[in-house]
Amino acid sequence: MVLEKRGALSGAKFVSFEGIDGCGKTTLMDRLAGWLEEAGIACIRVREPGGTSIGEKIREILLDTACSEMTRRTEVLLYSASRAQLIGEVIEPALEKGAWVLADRFVDATFAYQGFGRGFDLERLAMIQRWATGGLWPDKTILLDCDVAVAASRLGQRPGAKRDRIESEAGDFHKKVREGYLFLAREEPTRFVILDAAKPLEEVAKDFHERFWLAEG
Ligand code: TMP
Could you tell me the residue range of the domain that residue 120 belongs to? Predict the structure, then answer.
């Protein structure tokens, strides 16, 4: 699959965090935000779907367990619409100002969940994504990889845990999503950094520091 790269807007970095539900993305995003702050580098954090008032409304529809009749096409278009709004309203202006952008999921989630998970044609998805993003692609993508059972047990441990429409999918779906992410990472080894998210959190954070922060700095 040929993916486009963003043009050099500035020295800013666009970093996305991906993985199956329960893989522990938030903790690593917190760490990176902290390192950037210590280094005096501006950054913003966004999440998908959502991150804008329009996107958050789309998120509610996408994750609502009552929306069980949603078709695959509708799902793809809603995730893509939320993304298009987030790029235009938040991500591009931030990159243009020189801030780093840390994204809790981006295009790879659509390839992994809708492409590999739901079986949506990958070439068609790539076409829709190119249009929705205007070709804006992350500079680096951190993939937190772990077994579906490990992630599921973490999800169950979250306080007040109630599964949303996507999290409620059967284990097989999440297995396909995981395999999808690993396929995408193999296709673009320079953009992706794969971390073993089954390790204790402090070890994952240490690997992240060595393999991303020190390597990129
Ligand atoms: P979150 O729980 O990480 O905020 O993500 C919301 C859910 O939406 C999660 O189960 C992954 C799923 N998702 C997709 O299926 N496709 C996408 O393009 C994105 C961004 C998320």
Answer: 14-216
